[in-house]
Each structure stands twice: as structure tokens, then as C-alpha cells.
């Protein structure tokens, strides 16, 4: 297996004497050796050593695919294959992806680049790749059956086009999509502008990731591909909190985060402590007079958004999907809410019969973070993540943006937990508390009742079993 470092060394010497104008048999004969990456760590950016300089992106828990130049054409080689993805420490999934990982590596080019991508199929069924959002010849669009025959197992297809417009794109199969996207086949694509662009600001940090979701039963390894709604693992780049790396930036850096949604529902992405602007979509940069400040932006299915902000506030800032069920990890779904029910003696009896029996806590769900509860193999707790003050009680689509004065330019390493200045931290109050005065009147209503108010009624609400949706 060739490492990325080996490949980078070979860039420049691997280029060929093969003269090609369009896709040809000669091009196929000169297939670049595929580069593989099997770890789930965030690799440092791939700084270009030729051509127009740009500030490269960092793929969260991912990497950028090296290329080779061949007579002025950037050549990439993607290999579609089964992979093992560590979704978080303690949990592995058997997915499909590209070049050793799901998602596949990020492809990063410059506006105007002529790009040739070899796609080899090592899956047990046919596939194709669609280059989502790109301007390209129709025959390069990768819709199997419509614009090309499917790539059969063992075969390699070659796609070639000019990256005509700068922006944020992705790639994914357009063949048996339901299976192949449910199994994790997808990747990011970034095209940098070839010169200063009036609508694309220069930034110091440029991160990207895809939103994806899986339905993997606790204790098993392979996603259930028929699932349309009841996903139980909500991930970024096929990682779930606490397996998602933090986004580490320097105080006052301009930060861009590019996000694409390949799940089957929308995700309101929320950043703490800062306002951001949505500066672009998969359709391109947004005109400046059409932008407005946000702290949450919804990303619909199949959409991409790029957000930008000045990291002006030091600290460890939560960054997550605002759907609370998407910041949880795998759990059975048909569970009633048990708050207020004392089921300790029952639970003890059942645990004797079924060792993996889980009890929903009667005080709320926070007890679910305690590791004492027995879990099936290859399952991590529903809500977890140790922070400096205890459990973060999160899972799924959650991470932290770490803003630090001392972070060096271009340094993406984790600076550890934020050290709060004295007096700048919420603490327990020791003063005597007063009973709050409770309002008796019904003033403030536009139509107050004339008769005496009815006695207050308390409702016990519990979710019905077998509910659909989140
Ligand atoms: Cu979400």
C-alpha cells in the first residue's frame, strides 16, 4: 500500500510522455497508482507545490487526495471499495467508500484546471460517480443508464472536464444510490478561484465535511440500507461525537466552513459565541448584498452551504446540529419515556434474564451517559464525551470550535481545553435564594376570562411506542 507521503514524493516524476487531448485509451494505460488512507484522523492540508497558490482546505476526520500532473492535466484516482470506518473510538462500521475511507478523500483543484479522474470499482456491484454541482459536458455527469453505462465491478472509468466555476461541491454515486449512499459513498470537492474573486474572501482556515447518517443496530457493524427515516447514527464525515475532531483556529482568524448534506433530512447547523454569514452554496458564491448574519443555518437534503466568521472570541465553542435527536448516538427507538417511574426493582429482575437490557432513566436522560450501563459490543453510549467539567452529554453531530490566541498560523493541532480567565466562568452561587413571586392575575391577555379560572390540570405526557420521525 502506498502512503500519501510516498505519493507526494512521486508527484512531478510520475507525469508522462502520454499525449492526450480527450479521454483516450492512452490515458487509461497510464493509470496513476491510487493513494489510500485508512485512519480516521484529520490530516493536515495538502499544500499545492505547483500552479496557482491557494489556502488549502482541511477535511474534518479526512484528507485530500493527491494528484499528479500529466501534460497539464490534474490526474486523480478514486477506488470505490468496502472500507472499515471507526465512527468513534469503540465503534467501527463496515461501510463502502473510496480509497480506504468513508467519505472518500476531498478533491481540491483551481478554477480552470483540466481534471481527469480515474474511477475503479472494487465493489460487489456496479457504480458511477456524479460530480454534484459542476458545470461539465453532459457525458461526464455520471448518471448511470442516462449519461453512461454503469461501471461494472473490476472496471475503471475515466472522467475528464474543466473545473469551470469556483466553489463547494461533492461527489457521490448515481447508481443504486439508496444502497451506496446509505453505505457511505460520498466525498467533498473544492474548486478555488484562480485569482482574487470579488465574492470569495481569502480566509485563514477553510474546513469541510459532509453530513451523513446511518442505521446500525447496537452491537452490529453494517448499516441497514432500507432505512429512510429511523437513522440512529447522525454523523459528520462518518464520525459521531466524541469521535469528531475539533476545529482549531487562531483568535481573529477568518474561518470558512463548507458543509454538504447527504442525509435524508435537514440539519440546522448552530455555532455558539459568533455570528456567521452564509457566503456560498453549491450554486456558487452569494452576492454580498444578499447575505445576512446567522447563528444557525438550515441545510436541506442535497444542499451545500459555506459559512464564514471572524473567530473573535476565545474559548471552546459548541458547534452542532440543533435537532436534539441528532446529537445522540445509537439507541433503540421504541422506548417509552420513563421519567417519574420507579422501575429499579423491575430492571434488576429483567437484567438477570437479559444482560444487555437498557433502562431509560427515571430522572431524565442524563443518566444514560453513565458508563455503568451495560452496552452491546461495538456500541458507544447515546450521550457522552468527557469535557473539563464532566460529561458533555452529547453524541452524533456535535463538535467544538477552539479559538485560541496562542494557536500558530497554519497549526491545526488540538490546543486542549480552554483555560477560563478568573471571574469569567459560571459557578455555583452560595447566596440565599428567594422564592420567586408567582403571578396570580391573568393580566396581559387580550381576552381575559370573566368566570373563575378552572383548577389547574396536570398532564402526564409520554411518547407512544413505535413513533415515526425524530
Ligand atoms: Cu441534524
Write up what this structure looks like.
- There is one protein chain.
- This protein has 470 residues and is mainly β.
- It has a domain at 4-187: Immunoglobulin-like (Sandwich), CATH 2.60.40.420.
- It is 6% helix and 29% strand.
- It has four helices and 24 strands.
- Strands 1, 11, 12, 14, 16, 17, 18 and 20 form an eight-stranded mixed sheet that branches.
- A hairpin with a 2-residue loop joins strand 16 (276-281) and strand 17 (284-285).
- It is globular, with a radius of gyration of 25 Å.
Biggest beta-sheet profile: 8 strands, mixed
By CATH reckoning, the class of the domain at 4-187 would read: Mainly Beta
The percentage of residues in β strands lies in 25-35%
The CATH architecture of the domain at 4-187 comes to Sandwich
Global shape: globular
Show unreliable segments: 1-22, 332-337
User: From N to C, what is the helix and strand string?
Assistant: HHEEEEEEEEEHEEEEEEEEEEEEHEEE
Radius of gyration: 25 Å
Cα distance spanning the termini: 42 Å
Estimated helix fraction: under 10%
Beta strands, count: 24
Decide which structural class fits the backbone. Answer: mainly beta
CATH third-level topology of the domain at 4-187: Immunoglobulin-like
CATH superfamily of the domain at 4-187: Cupredoxins -  blue copper proteins
Average of pLDDT? 85
What ligand molecules are bound, each kind once?
A: copper (II) ion
Report the total helices: 4
